[in-house]
Amino acid sequence: MTAPNVASGGLLGAIGGVPRPETDVVVDARDVNKWFGRLHVLRDVTIQVKRQEVVVIIGPSGSGKTTFIRCINHLEKIQSGRIFVNGHLIGYRESGSGKLIEDKEKNIARQRQEIGMVFQRFNLFPHMTALENIIEAPIQVRGTPREEAVVIGRALLERVGLAAKENVYPNQLSGGQQQRIAIARALAMKPALMLFDEPTSALDPEMIGEVLEVMKELAREGMTMVVVSHEMGFAREVANRVVMMDDGVVVEEGTPDQVFSAPTHNRTKVFLSKIL
Amino acid sequence: MTASPFTRLGTRRALLAGCLVILAVTVTGCSGNYTLRPQFFWDSLFRPSPAIVNGLGLTLGISVVAQFLGVILGVFAAMGKMARFRPFRWVANIYIWIFRGTPLLVQLSFFYYGMAAAGLFKWPAIVIGPIDILPEIFAGIVILGVNEGAYMAEIVRAGILSVDPGQTEASKSLGMTYGQTMRRIVLPQAARVIVPPLGNEFNNMLKTTSLLTVISVFELYNTFSVAAGHSYATFELMAAAAVWYLLLTTIWGFVQSGIERRLARGTATSSSGPSGPQGPGWRTRFFGRSNVDAGVGGLGGH
After folding, report:
1. Residue numbers of B between 264 and 283 with CB closer than 8 Å to A
2. Angle between helices B135-161 and B50-81 (to 10 degrees)
3. CA B267: distance to chain centroid?
4. Which chain B positions have a beta carbon within 8 Å of A123's beta carbon?
5. Residues facing A252 on adjacent strands
6. Mutate to test the interface with A, among B163, B174, B184, B194 (most CBs of A within 10 A)
7. Distance of CA B259 to the CA centre of its chain
8. Closest CA–CA distance from residue A187 to any residue of chain B (Å)
9. Where are the beta strands (DSSP E) in chain B?
10. In Å, how far is B103's CA from the nearest CA of chain A?
């Protein structure tokens, strides 16, 4: 086998460069509606994310931002609307009459390979070491030879600053370290898009910085990212666009400057006054 | 901490005393017309006949294979019970309902004698390489395994439910299929919850094989039973049979605590002391917890 090229710098260097999304618009969500029972949690949500763009979704709890990001890789079902990633309809196929029919489990799994996700509570596999966590999916799902997966996995561990923790189980790591490994685990699949669901909300304050550093690095290198977060500093620094959601509706969106400095909508003003 | 006479050493002494009493009865004989012939007891322990060795092998072999079958069926039945597709749930529920709701003895007679009597099914002999498996042994393994699967189903289901749903989500988000998620992520973590009750199930299985006597499998109990019928040394031989079973279950107890310790890796406190999540070690298991750390006496406490 040929050794994978992991020599070039940066996080994405470890996985052989910036994964190329197939289309200019990576995420194209149109009029998405979702109900939990009678509760209408997403109301005609329309959001587009372009290639290499970083979009940060903010909003009070219960606004539907986490639910929305989970719909993008079909961890949640939607009742109407369409979500396309890389031009492919996610989770469903359309019947002749335009109704949504849930896709086969195998097809959904294949679509998810292109979408990395980082969770609030890390969700590392506790029975596997740091390195095993990272190489599991490439080997099982992509069929990457083990040696190659290990080379890439070690490179990723090094780039997130945890080369020394390769054989350590998650329970022996701090929250910040676990989250950095979770990011490396998602990157190992060479996704075209990364989703972050409140990645720093479960962390002690002193560990938030190290995780945000990795995310900033990733953004600088050109990864397409959708981030649900309350980290306004992060949003100001790296977001191309901030989306404000409230009560299942996209209230307003714009550059960080527009949204933070001159919010047009009253609900945004109220929310920002509480959080800043 | 109040002082108590039942230290660990005391417990061990009590155990020794118990053994001596049994020995005394065996050696000196007891009242009545029954003449004790201790050599039947000692010989079947220390100079076991080929029939006993064979019976021992059968008991162990049948238990292992039937338990293995039971675990496999249990995993499928558990997944069936949790399936979104309704017919899967029906099949799993009916299977569990029937095999947990009827006596094993009836199941054995029905599927071995009953089916043959009605001309519906006759169990074949099986040849696997150099091993010939008699029809009654084959039937015994399958029926024990299928019966066990119905009990394992609930144990496996509880194990699967004990795994954080976030694990499944993380696995799915990496593109793993349901099968990969189960096999690589959920079941290995469920194993930690499944193994302790599984150990009890296997302990039970070792003893339950004695029911195969009813379909004339010459496992350990049947061998001793026949020998007792010939010699009338029922007391000595059944005592010896009990010792053999006790030996099997005791060895299994040690093996089990070893397995549990191995599975504890990656848990929150796996580096803690002997009463950590890996469960009590074999000393604690065998002699009871010493009153120093548990506050009450173990074996022989009163």
Report:
1. 265-268, 270
2. 40
3. 26
4. 164, 166-167, 169-170
5. A244
6. B174
7. 15
8. 10
9. 126-128, 131-133
10. 39
Distance CA A80, CA A92 (A): 11
* Number of neighbouring beta carbons within 10 Å of residue B253: 15
Q: Cβ contacts (< 8 Å) between B173 and chain A: which residues?
A: 73, 75, 112, 115-117, 186
**Dihedral in degrees, nearest 10, Cα atoms A230, A235, A239, A245:** 40
Type of residue numbered B201: E
Chain A partners within 8 Å of B184 (Cβ): 136, 140
Q: Would strands A241-246 and A54-58 be described as parallel, antiparallel, or unpaired?
A: parallel
Res A2 pLDDT > 70: no
Number of inter-chain CB pairs under 8 A, A vs B: 71
What is the least distance, in Å, from the CA of A188 to any CA of chain B?
9
pLDDT tens column, A162-199 = 999 999 999 999 999 999 999 999 999 999 999 999 99
Tokens of A78: 């939607």
Inform me whether the pLDDT recorded for A259 exceeds 80.
yes
Q: What angle do CA B127, B131, B137 make, to 5 degrees?
A: 75
A110, A126, A185 member nearest B189 (Cβ): A126
Written as one string, the DSSP assignment of B3-46 is: --S--HHHHHHHHHHHHHHHHHHHHH--SSSPPP-HHHHHHHHH
Report which residue type is found at A153.
Answer: G
What interface predicted TM-score (ipTM) does this complex get? Answer: 0.92
Q: What is the mean pLDDT of residues B191-199?
A: 91
Question: Count of residues for chain A?
Answer: 276
Distance of alpha carbon A213 from the chain centroid: 15
Angstrom distance (rounded) from CA B124 to CA B126: 6
Q: Give the CA-trace dihedral at B124, B128, B133, B138, to 10 degrees.
A: -60
Task: Inspect the interface and report whether the beta carbons of B188 and A73 lie closer than 8 Å.
Answer: no
Is A252 in contact with A264 (CB distance < 8 Å)?
Answer: yes
Q: What is the pLDDT of residues B15-46, one digit of tens each?
A: 676 676 666 666 665 556 778 899 999 999 99
Partner-chain contact B189 A127, CB within 8 Å = yes
